[in-house]
Specification:
By secondary structure, this protein is α/β, with parallel strands linked by helices.
């Protein structure tokens, strides 16, 4: 398989099951999973492996100590970064996602920190929810929905 182009970035993930499930989706679609520390768990935890099943060993995984280290080392172009938050300026169906995009998700309890979102308000995207009684969706479910939407052109959609 060629080097992954689309990249999934999880900033300070807290729940091992979500990270494992997202890793499994990355393996299924040939994507890179980028994790930004600190984590709310150890990558050695059974829950990560259980959610990723026996696929976890196949995850194309990169880890960074901080968001700043990630930016310094990877140098992602601004227009390749897509940030996902509950109250984004656009919804997930609007952008034409670049093939080499970085889809960035925050931690389960707080989302993305303000210091990451400062200056990129136009790059913040939401997944619509029709019923206002639902405060948020599960991170693994959101990431999977976003990934498939971003990859529609490559997957024949």
């Amino acid at each position: 398989m060629s080097d992954p182009r689309l990249k999934i970035v999880l900033v300070t993930p807290e729940i091992p099951y979500n990270t494992g499930a997202i890793g499994r989706t990355c393996v299924a679609l040939g994507l890179e999973l980028i994790l930004i520390k600190p984590y709310g768990f150890s990558l050695d935890e059974k829950a990560v492996r259980r959610a990723g099943q026996d696929y976890w060993k196949h995850v194309h995984l990169s880890e960074y100590e901080t968001w700043e280290t990630f930016l310094e080392e990877r140098k992602p172009p601004r227009d390749a970064l897509y940030f996902f938050e509950e109250h984004g300026a656009r919804n997930v169906y609007e952008p034409d996602y670049q093939e080499d995009a970085y889809l960035v998700f925050g931690c389960e309890s707080k989302g993305l920190p303000d210091e990451i979102l400062d200056g990129v308000k136009d790059r913040i995207i939401s997944l619509p929810m029709r019923n206002p009684i639902v405060r948020s969706l599960n991170l693994a479910n959101v990431a999977t929905a976003v990934i498939y939407q971003a990859m529609r052109p490559q997957l024949g959609g």
